[in-house]
Prior knowledge:
By secondary structure, the protein is of the alpha+beta class. It has helices at residues 16-32, 69-81, 102-109, 125-137; strands at residues 2-10, 36-52, 55-67, 85-93. The radius of gyration is 20 Å and the shape is globular.
Amino acid sequence: MAFYECVYMARPDVSTTQVEAITEQITNIITERGGSVHSTEYWGLKSLAYRVKKNRKAHYVLMNIDCNNDAKAEMERTMSLNEDVLRMLTLRLEEMPDGQSIQMRAKARGDRPDRGDRGDRGDRGDRGERRERRSEDA
Length: 138
């Protein structure tokens, strides 16, 4: 058995209960084939960086799975046939992660994930310093 991390995006017009039903369907596929789902996290309705199948938002769900290749292949096949699933990504992990994901920790702390590494836009002091250095070099 191998450890996998699966993230899928569901259409924004489906309800949260329908997203939970998709997660339950995937969990049933995994457990019927001898695997287990260690944890699931619903990250919520988030904006996309670019349009995916004419959608600007999507429901994100993370699942940590311990299963064999047959169960993973069936899970991916089922998700690819489901019209409510926009995209999915399954990664193989060396070990099962403990605790919450980074997304859930940031949500609990109240961080603003939309800012990323850009920082505060009001602070533009280093641009002026670069211009001064360029004028000194000339």
